[in-house]
Automatic annotation (TrEMBL), chains A, B:
It comes from Pseudoduganella aquatica. GO terms for biological process: sulfur compound metabolic process. Residues 137-297 form the Oxidoreductase molybdopterin-binding domain. InterPro entries: Ig_E-set, MoCF_OxRdtse_dimer, Mopterin_OxRdtase_euk, OxRdtase_Mopterin-bd_dom, OxRdtase_Mopterin-bd_sf, Sulfite_DH_SoxC. The keyword S-adenosyl-L-methionine does not apply. It is an enzyme of class 1 (oxidoreductase). Keywords: Metal-binding, Molybdenum, Oxidoreductase. This is Sulfite dehydrogenase. The lineage of its organism: Bacteria, Pseudomonadati, Pseudomonadota, Betaproteobacteria, Burkholderiales.
Length: 449, 449
């Protein structure tokens, strides 16, 4: 994975080809003064403001500072509109990818690709970089053929086409989705080398769909006996998950839209369940059936997998809510501070129980804390972006973030979590993450107790 | 443009290949009951729930209902994770494109491509479908070479690299961007045939960058004399726009991030100005220079272009704020209602002056109005999604939306706007839009006075 780490990038952001070039071309303040004087001396050569600002380019290109040249893109006709009817990132952003962690699973169709959190901004995850967790691979299903059945304890079972669904009252809401196994390696003291691999089973989108409650009402679910629903996917794994009827009637969506357009195939196109605050496995992709029942279904992926191993040898089932958590995304492990001075520490906070109330940041391993600035909007069961100023003096430092949600719950330290949960678990690790900054500027993943 | 209209799609959403297939394969309620009985008769064949829900597929594929077959994607191993390190939409969404309006300009590098609003959900515009308006084409500029100069009435002029900028305190905010010429054709009674072409110079993203005020402070702008700034782009058009110092110090961003990742090349990568509430031309792309001055610059694109022709033969300059406006995106012109019954009317509202307070919807050409439901979050100078129930009885109808912003401003009717502005203008048409539903279900663009 070492090769991958390099690709995960350094400060200030990931694509390392970009940052490396910056090092080579960095213009210091001193250099800038030189430049400016040169610019003023030679300004009679400039026909106007456009040329003037071209000085920086002339130098960056290695040319004689006395020769003021405009870059080619300021002198030529560019590409036409709709050259890309569906646009793509810059050619300089090619290193920004979701990445598999080789060897994590035996079959790459039943594996994970991680979102490159270290290089993202704000709270919206670009759909092309949304993390993936498949149990039997993904398909690009024809929406004209796809159907959703609602059956079980209902007055009338129904089969809906996509057109049927998309005529119904729809809502749009922003929510995070996090795999229950996110940050799993940290349970066992395996400090994975970047935030992409430690926390990258986390994404956030604006979802659009019909409330599941509308469909349950439409089919006349039995209010006396209905206590659970089962959601089932159409992929080969036939993923099935139990959801309580209270939750199903609350804020669960049968969604087709993600970030303004149709879901991507890897994220369940044309239909997936959105279960705000709950671990990703319950957000059943390629959703084809909802069954209403009177007891939990104890499906394979809730009775055997996705259970919490406890220190006494027992397993907790049906622990689905993603508790309050946060992580600093920049600076983070695998990045490097280029020099001392001012940095903007930034990261993400979220809670499956509601809104984030506060995020504190420490740069000395948890001895002192300062409250970070939260970007708006702060939404329920959604990522919240935080920022805080930091001036690095060149001494080793340990960076931590600690989130508090609107219920008053405080994100725990790893030793606090282990005291209750032990170290045998895979799931639901929401401990405070520590990043160590070395005197060299290298940032690495450490565990601080 | 007629061929283009077909591509703009019909109800419920655009890709017409999808909707057409739906027509061919529609399962009526009667058919469903038949299906269900068939399913129950044959259910001994089903090994479990997975097979059971496959009945719909067996029929949809045209097979004997007695033969229960699972679709191939439920029987096979799918594609691996990270098959697309940067994911793309489904192969079934190919018709969803930003499109040029042929003949609108003489050179396609100085033209427009429109966002397909009729097929989008929520408020976030997928970056691949963000509208384009270039004045001399677009380039994919190397961020390692790019520089931003701040000069003019400052204590120390400076040149910033991208790394310099990205270390500074950053903020993330969601804002709409609308071209001042959006909906221009409606001034002259030219009812363009779809909302993509009438309102598609409109997009909305989460932007991340450093407040311009931070850079102006960093360079020590002259508080006594500074009254305006000039923003200049690095493309061949050398786009330059004047912004008042009050606005520059308020909410303007020097942005590199859009929807979580770096700006797209067509949208100014690696740096653009974000001027919330102001027409798109001031959001200078490929931003390379900010000059602080004491008077407006009267640049070409503010003295001659982007001026409002008034009925008395005069022109208004520097009218930059996008006033309160809304439009129904579905159903909209070029779509077709497949049958009578329930529909979810949905659309977008926005104001350059702040938040949307209310959106009313009429289905009878403005005689009666009902208040629509606003999706959260409702943010300042950002798109707001509205939804409202409607049951179509099959009679002709005229659909309208009317937005009111937090200042109390009410979106005007087209005749109210013409009474003040005449019909010679190109810019700043924020009139109420009317869509006519014919008895056939066809939706078209009409002007209602």
């Amino acid at each position: 994975m070492t090769g991958e780490v390099a690709k995960a990038g350094r400060i200030l952001r990931a694509p390392e080809n970009f940052v490396d070039s910056q090092l080579a071309l960095d213009i210091t303040s001193k250099g800038l003064d030189e430049q400016r004087r040169g610019f003023l001396r030679k300004s009679f050569l400039a026909a106007g403001a456009a040329l003037a600002s071209g000085t920086a380019y002339g130098q960056a290109a290695g040319g004689d500072p006395a020769i003021l040249t405009l870059p080619e893109h300021s002198r030529t006709l560019g590409k036409p509109v709709a050259a890309n009817p569906y646009g793509m990132p810059s050619r300089f952003e090619g290193a920004l990818q979701r990445r598999e962690s080789p060897g994590l699973t035996r079959v790459n169709a039943a594996s994970v690709s991680f979102t490159p959190l270290q290089s993202l901004f704000g709270i919206i995850t670009p759909s092309g970089l949304h993390f993936e967790r498949h149990h039997q691979g993904w398909h690009d299903i024809d929406p004209a053929q796809h159907r959703l059945m609602v059956n079980g304890l209902v007055r009338q079972q129904k089969v809906y086409t996509m057109d049927d669904l998309m005529r119904l009252p729809s809502v749009s809401r922003m929510h995070f989705i996090e795999c229950g196994a996110n940050t799993a390696m940290e349970w066992g003291n395996v400090a994975v080398p970047s935030v992409q691999y430690s926390h990258g089973m986390l994404s956030c989108s604006e979802f659009t769909g019909v409330p599941l409650s509308v469909l349950l009402d439409d089919c006349g679910y039995d209010k006396k006996t209905a206590r659970f629903v089962l959601a089932e996917g159409a992929d080969g794994s036939g993923m099935t998950r139990t959801i309580s009827i209270d939750r199903a009637l609350d804020d669960v969506l049968v969604a087709w839209g993600m970030n303004g357009e149709m879901l991507r195939p890897e994220n369940g196109y044309p239909l997936r369940l959105v279960v705000p605050g709950v671990q990703g496995v319950s957000w059943v992709k390629w959703l084809r059936r909802i069954e209403v029942g009177d007891q939990p279904y104890a499906a394979k992926d809730e009775a055997i997998h996705y259970v919490d191993a406890m220190p006494d040898g027992m397993y907790r089932q049906y622990t689905s809510i993603q508790e309050c958590k946060s992580v600093i995304t920049t600076p983070s492990a695998g990045q490097r501070l280029l020099d001392t001075g001012f940095y903007n520490i930034t990261g993400l906070a979220w809670s499956g129980r509601g809104k984030i109330k506060r995020v504190d940041v420490s740069t000395d391993g948890g001895r002192n804390w300062r409250t970070a600035r939260l970007e708006s909007p702060v939404l329920s069961k959604c990522l919240t972006r935080f920022n805080i100023d930091w001036t690095w003096d060149g001494a080793p430092a340990v960076l931590q973030a600690r989130a508090i949600d609107e219920t008053g719950y405080v994100q725990p330290k790893i030793n606090e979590l282990r005291a209750v949960r032990g170290t045998r678990s895979i799931y639901h690790n929401n401990a405070i993450q520590s990043w160590q900054v070395a005197a060299s500027g290298e940032v690495s993943n450490v565990q601080v107790y």
